[in-house]
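Attaching the record inline, Q. Sequence:
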Amino acid sequence: MNARTPHTSAVRRTGIALAASAAALTLTACGVVDGIGGGDSSQAPEKGDDITVGLLLPDKDTARFEKFDYPLIKKEVGALTNDKGKVVYANAEASPKKQSQQFQQMIDDQVDVILVDALDAKAIASDVQKAKDAGIPVIAYDRLAEGPVTAYVSHDNELVGEVQARSLVEELGSKAASSKVVMMNGDPADPNTGRFKKGAVGELEGAVDIVKRYDTDKWSPEVAKKNMQTAIASIGVNNIAAVYSANDGMAGAVIEALKDAGVSKMPPVTGQDANLDAVQRIVAGEQFMTVYKPFALEATDAAKMAVYKVQGRDIEFDALTQDSVDSGSEKNIPAQLVSVVPVTKNNVKSTVVRDGVYTVKDICTAEYAAACAAIGLK
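Structure, as predicted:
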């Protein structure tokens, strides 16, 4: 068994160079991860290729889940099982109750392993326990669920907040200390929210004046817009120097509220997830930045972890989980934490375009053609 690192900071501050995502994806594409530990020839699989992976994703508002995560996981499971394995997929559409019902259905259907992106980390713990009791391993995907999860694969979420906040402070420059900043945090029921917030606050406090802080139920853009309208009424639209928004959906709502209030110059607004509309806003100069979390590496490695676990390929499984994290109920959960990349108008081409997330044609529609030309995106 490999030695594990002591906490979530295992890969933190290892650098956020733009080469990180490309290098990681190249390693995966070249089969380096598959080759770690010399394969599984010395171990008899617990089960063959005819396996069923249950996949529970949280919502459809975040574009990446339907467009990238599910198709990538499905494709990788097929590739790893000679197209004999299958993925049973369900989306909770932002309802914890619905996700619990979907979870129970997968237990009843006796899937071999469950990948779950939990809407409510604490509430789902009982479902995770039921799966364990039924002999079904559960891998927490993207968000860390409580309960006896077998492993966790996500991005370094504290680093996400650090990258967002550091980008804001650097953009504000010499005016940062006197700048009034609004914080639009995510859903407090989401375990990642606290990590994003911790990373961001560590960079913002003492560097800027955080005048308003909001938590956003279910990451709802509508709630975020109402909160931003409240902040504008309290502070004055032209007194807001920047907005820390934890994701792209809320960033779009924040920008709408600022526009509605007649902002004379759009302040820098952060985001996360590299949604297409957010990338287009960045190109147009409306949104300052987003955090690109390489979907391909997270999704394909989650699929590998699921398949390897079911097949008893411990060497490969351990090679993918050399970090560790603590949840609210468990300690030292085997984990993989993928690094992240900030995206601004200066590096759209060398990040999301280069990695094949979007083409220039996807981004530079007629509405954005002039803005793309202005920054040399072609």
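The two ends are 48 Å apart (CA to CA). The longest strand covers residues 52-57.

More tomorrow.
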